[in-house]
């Protein structure tokens, strides 16, 4: 209700800083534009494996949704998110995403055969299968190796299956393991999204304000600078701070969000941050000969 009230107060058509990924609000910083180009390149070249990584809240899912808006009609798409388990579980996730119905007790060999038949049939019908795995850092080494094996299905000269992986930075660490070197070699294109610069954050905030009918100046430059610092350049954290700052401003009857409002909501403890690592103190033991005496 408070958010709806601030939208009316500022004359916005809707909330400019909702946390839900919405391609209508897509903002392409230089890094995001490059990441999007890498995803498009992967699709266009039928790359077997394309990978996008970045911290939580960096907009990876938003980019994927924007990519799906422009996908060709001859592509059969499957979207898997938060898949976990063993290789048999992975195949069930994949087949479910592709709307391939199977009995519950189907064994692994039958699962693989159903998948292979489906991919080949789609190719024969002039279609190309694309599988998008979101939150791919949750996959273990076994499941990633299974994905690589799936990309081995081909027609002799054409790749019949293309996989796009999106995940947190741990995904890069996982793939760097020696046992996954064959997987890493099949990754044709990869991009890592870093947090916004201060200029990016300012442009991002103004862009979202203007998308809902604002002027872009409803949040002052000083407040934007403070928000960028507190959010550490992470878009989702920027959204949280801006959304609450607009609520605070509207409740006080202000038409502009200044730095004092941002300070106030931070003092009120409305933004949770990860606790710093604990400092462990250990007693130093002197093992020298002098100490022994």
From TrEMBL:
Domain AAA+ ATPase: 46-188
SMART domains assigned: AAA (SM00382)
Stored InterPro entries: AAA+_ATPase, AAA_22, ExeA_AAA_ATPase_DNA-bind, P-loop_NTPase
A Pfam cross-reference name: AAA_22
UniProt keyword annotations, A-Z: Plasmid
PANTHER family: GENERAL SECRETION PATHWAY PROTEIN A-RELATED, PHOSPHORIBULOKINASE _ URIDINE KINASE FAMILY
Name of the featured protein: AAA+ ATPase domain-containing protein
């Amino acid at each position: 209700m408070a958010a709806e009230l601030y939208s009316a107060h500022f004359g916005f058509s809707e909330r400019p800083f909702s946390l839900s990924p919405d391609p209508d609000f897509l903002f392409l910083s230089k890094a995001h534009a490059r990441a999007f180009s890498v995803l498009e390149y992967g699709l266009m070249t039928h790359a077997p494996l394309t990978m996008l990584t970045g911290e939580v809240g960096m907009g990876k899912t938003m980019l994927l949704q924007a990519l799906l808006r422009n996908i060709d009609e001859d592509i059969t798409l499957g979207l898997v998110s938060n898949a976990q388990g063993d290789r048999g579980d992975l195949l069930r996730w994949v087949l479910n995403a592709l709307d391939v119905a199977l009995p519950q007790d189907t064994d692994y060999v039958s699962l693989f055969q159903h998948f292979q038949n489906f991919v080949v049939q789609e190719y024969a019908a002039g279609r190309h299968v694309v599988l998008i795995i979101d939150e791919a850092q949750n996959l273990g080494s076994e499941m990633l190796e299974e994905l690589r094996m799936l990309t081995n299905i081909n027609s002799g000269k054409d790749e019949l299956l293309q996989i796009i992986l999106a995940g947190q930075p741990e995904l890069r660490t996982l793939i760097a393991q020696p046992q996954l070197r064959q997987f890493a070699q099949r990754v044709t294109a990869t991009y890592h999204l870093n947090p916004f610069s201060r200029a990016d954050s300012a442009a991002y905030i103004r862009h979202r304000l203007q998308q809902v009918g604002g002027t872009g100046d409803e949040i002052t430059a000083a407040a934007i600078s403070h928000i960028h610092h507190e959010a550490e350049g992470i878009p989702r954290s920027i959204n949280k701070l801006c959304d609450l700052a607009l609520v605070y401003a509207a409740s006080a009857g202000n038409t502009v969000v200044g730095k004092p409002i941002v300070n106030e909501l931070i003092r009120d403890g409305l933004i949770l941050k990860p606790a710093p690592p604990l400092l462990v103190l250990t007693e130093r033991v002197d093992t020298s000969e002098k100490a022994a005496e």
